[in-house]
Amino acid sequence: MTTPRFLPLADYPRYPEARMHExxxxxxxxxxxxxxxxxxxxxxxxREVIEECIRTAGTAPSGAxxxxxxxAVVADPAIxxxxxxxxxxxxxxxxxxxxxxxxxxxxxxxxxDADKPFLETAPYLxxxxxxxxxxxxxxxxxxxxxxxxxxxxxxxxxxxxxxNVGLASLTHTPNPMKFLNQVLGxxxxxxxxxxxxxxxxxxxxxxxxxxxxxxxxICTFY
Length: 222
Prior knowledge:
The chain is built from eight helices and six strands, in the order H-H-E-H-H-H-E-E-E-H-E-H-E-H. It is of the alpha+beta class. The protein has one domain: NADH Oxidase. A hairpin with a 5-residue loop joins strand 3 and strand 4.
């Protein structure tokens, strides 16, 4: 068993309470303006910006600090086309016969269908994989703990980081997603978690008129 090594904690600023509240509210207001969009601009985004956002995602907490995620960033038009074709095949099956009526009713107010042009329009598709295990130095299989929960935390931080720099995003989860391993040449221990579509929103884009639940509905203090 490895002997743990500890380092001093980096400085955490102690803000006055009023300043803490200002910062908390400012972040909420910024994130409350975030909306999922399905219409993206063709405008390019610097790769360096995406890299920094993914670095932020990589700071997420994870089970046993195993960091069980991989971000496959797709900008190549030919690969985006392959992903779109495979995703739309699964989506057509979903909308035509896989999805129960209740699910389709729940989606109806969003105006979604099997056509996914954003998979080609947006400058980047960030395919997020959860690593269920990795291979050690001696070729042994090493289990990862809470890989999906950890990857979900990292994905949330990535969405926040993208919004922070003015980029829109869309979480896309065609089902099943095994085709992503084949298209991207990823190993079988990496399980597709979702496709995060990102870029600038299209000009004059519109989004569904939805409301977020009030704090009283999502939080209980004891």
